Amino acid sequence: xxxxxxxxxxxxxxxxxxxxxxxxxxxxxxxxxxxxxxxxxxxxxxxxxxxxxxxxxxxxxxxx
Length: 64
Ligand code: SF4
Prior knowledge:
Layout: E1 2-5, H1 15-19, E2 24-27, E3 30-33, H2 44-52, E4 58-61
Antiparallel strand pairs: 1-4, 2-3
The structure holds iron/sulfur cluster.
């Protein structure tokens, strides 16, 4: 499963970075997926980060 961050929705709380620093980072003050870590949507911690994102900016999709 593919994880993405919609930077139009993100407001840079960095919660996702604190939760899963191996997958998320910040770029110019907004959340982003670390390059090469886009296929981590099956990780329960990534799913939790998506559920807990205060702006619902994190999406997990099948990559289609
Ligand atoms: S938790 Fe959500 S709002 Fe906060 S930095 Fe991550 S994607 Fe952005």
